[in-house]
Structure formats: C-alpha cells, structure tokens
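User: Round two. Same drill as before: sequence, then structure, for each protein.

Assistant: Same drill it is. First protein:
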Amino acid sequence: MDGPRPYTLTLAELRGLTQREVELPIACVEGWSKSAHWTGVRMTDLLDRAGAPPHARLRVVSLQLRGGYRVSEMSHGQARDPLTLLALRLNGEELTPDHGYPARLIAPNRPGVLQTKWVGRLEVLS
C-alpha cells in the first residue's frame, strides 16, 4: 500500500489480518448480476494502516500487464464503505485465477469491470 505510511503485505500476512464477510453481487455490464459471499480485509482497515486521510481516494492496480481495466480508482466514500473488501475468498473458497487470485476488489455499487482482479498494489490519492 502506497500512502503516508507505506507498507507491504504478503498473501500470508493478508490472510492473518481480520477477515470480514460480505454478500455483494457482481454486476456485469453485459446485463447479468449474481450475488456472492466474499471474505477479505476491509479496505478501510488497510487505508487506516497506511495513514490515509479520511477523504483520500484510492487507486487499485492489477498485476495484469495491460488492459483497460488493470487500474481503477475509488472515491473516498467507496473506499471507506465498510462493505468494500480486498477479497481473498469467494463463497468460502480461495479465489481462483478466473475470479482474481490472489486478491480482488469487491465493493458495493460498482460494475464488475471495475472490481479489479489480481490486485498487486493499492495507492492512496490525495
């Protein structure tokens, strides 16, 4: 996480942090939506650890090397929403590569294409 107090976490360390469960849909721009149970670390907890100011926006960067959706940005309201997670599990199982292993963004009221998969870095934006 890049921010006022930058830090790095391994996947094992992420798994060791307090895990939250939320039920949120994936809403595809092609018109379908499917609800799922997600488990991961609340984004607000990660932002607090980085010393992010309350109104800071967030940039989520994928491990994907190219593509139109490898980077997404979130308003402070979306990033601080208690339902927004850096998800590690889907319906009780570890994420598969198709669903964004090792970690993906899941947040309420965002199109599926903006629920960044294969998250490699989070950046606090002022």
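Second protein:
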Amino acid sequence: MSSLSLWVAQTLAAAFLAILFLQSGLDKVLDWKGNREYLGGYFAKTPLRRFSTFLLFNITVLEVFAGVASAAGCVTVFLTRNAGLAFVGAALAGLNVVALFFGQRLAKDYAAAAGMVPYACFAIGAVLLQGSNL
C-alpha cells in the first residue's frame, strides 16, 4: 500500500469512527432519561436488568472516549501521519461494539446483534489499519 493511500485510509477511518461514536455518545448524554428508560425495558428479562443504568453510563463514557480519541486521531493522522491516537480510538470503538453486541445477544435481540457485525468488522479493520505503521 502506498504511503498516500495509507494516510487517506487512516484519516477516513478515524473520521468515520469519530462521527459514529461522538454522535451516539452525545445522544446518550443529551437524552439520558430516554436512553435509561429504553435500556431498562430492553434488559428487563435479562440478568443485566439491575445494572442497566450502570451499563448505560459505561457505554456512554466509552463511546465519548472512542469518539474523542478518533477525532483527535483523525486530526493527528491528517497533520502528522502519526496514527497512535487513531489506533486508541479504533481499539476503544472495537471494545464498545463488543460490549453492545454482548448486551444485544444477552437480550436475545439477534437482529440488532447481527446489525452490529459491519461495525465490528470496520472497527477491527480500523485497528489493523491504524496499527499498520506504529
């Protein structure tokens, strides 16, 4: 892969993850009550029902951190071609997707879990891409 194509791909991957996780995390922050009510019902018939607020908090923090690290990584890759922060953002994004996938499988929401597969593939690919020149 040429240096230019690697740089463009790293920048775009970090931008995608920044948009995805900043929007999702900020939505949870701005509509905390609605998200808490939704998750309370979502996990009502699972062993996680007692922890839904705690889990929402953790997912929100992880999404915001993944988004911020990816945004900073996007700028850093674009300006300096250093993908360290973008790698951290991609790794946090991957961890977040795995956590969401776990919750969806436990809630037996198999359709939503299947919908997470493209995000998981993208996050794993971004980890490989961002780590390719570290």
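The chain has a mean pLDDT of 95.

User: Perfect.
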